[in-house]
Amino acid sequence: MTISLKDFKYPGSWNTNPNINNQYFEKVFEDSSKVGIYELNNPNHFLYMKNMISICSSFYPTFDNEQLILCGNFIHWLFLFDDFLEDEENTTSEKQNEILRTHEQILFTGQFINNDFQPKPLEKLTMLIQKTSKEWAIKYNKMDIYNLFLTTIFQWLYSVYPLNKTSESIKAIHMDLYSFIRKVNSGVIPTCAVVLLVDKEINNIDISKIWLNPIFTRIMDNLTMHVALVNDYASYSREINVGVHKVNPFYFLQMKGNLTFDDIFKFILKKCDDIINQIIKDEEYLLKQLKEQGYTPNQLNQVNKILNYNHYIIQGNINWSKISKRYNNIPDIPIFKSKSNYL
Fold first, then answer.
1. Could you point out which of 34, 78, 308, 339 has its C-alpha 20 to 30 Å from the C-alpha of 217?
2. pTM of the shown model
3. Could you tell me the pLDDT band of residue 331, with boundaries at 50, 70 and 90?
């Protein structure tokens, strides 16, 4: 069986060309270099960062440069934080709790936890995320969405350690446990929340009522699982190479059921197809329910816009994964030489 990311399907109506605006790369790199993540004049560092945040062009195909800069800085921070929390130097409970408290303090208060010491580069980057997103929320009267955005970040931060702990089990973990943790751990929810913060036109509906709607919740759960499964397929070889593959379903399902990789791929592929079909049904159900509740055509159009953003993330994740160099290692990036000094 020939296996490829091309086997993951979605409706043709969801397909959108990536954003052609690439000016945000330089601004995100400049911001990261100022806080000490990269060396400003090092082209390898720029290429590494570009390969990491180029997913924004696929996730956010309709955004302008100003919006892409905010999203790019956030996605960059998300990837960096995820990599460091998964690093073996930082997987102990005590170490991770210390890291999480430090960055939680910055996001909550806009202040460093200890002003007696020079903050580390990633702490400075966290401060940049806090300040720029809050300034945006104030400018566009979106403090409620800003609070939602921060809440989704905190939920994601505290999901990394439980997932890492499951890898310590001698037995292969259960798919249900994996699914429960990955719905939060995939990072998709804050990736969607930042869209609602950055969008300048969704202003005629109460986002909280949509966000808390159980139908929308199931849509988001399915969205996160689809992205997680595609990512786990795309990153499987890299995870084996660095020894963090035990919580990847392409590994633990083989171990648990004594199945071949092809068998697992067929299972995951069907699961993803079922997810897409359920999302389509739930979107129709949600719009029908809101119309019956008295939503105007303009309000329904804004809800549709939110649903379209979800489509961009599904199709963008598949298409970006086909060409991504995200997992290429560049050894001379300073942040990777001494990880403890940067977290």
1. 78
2. 0.90
3. very low
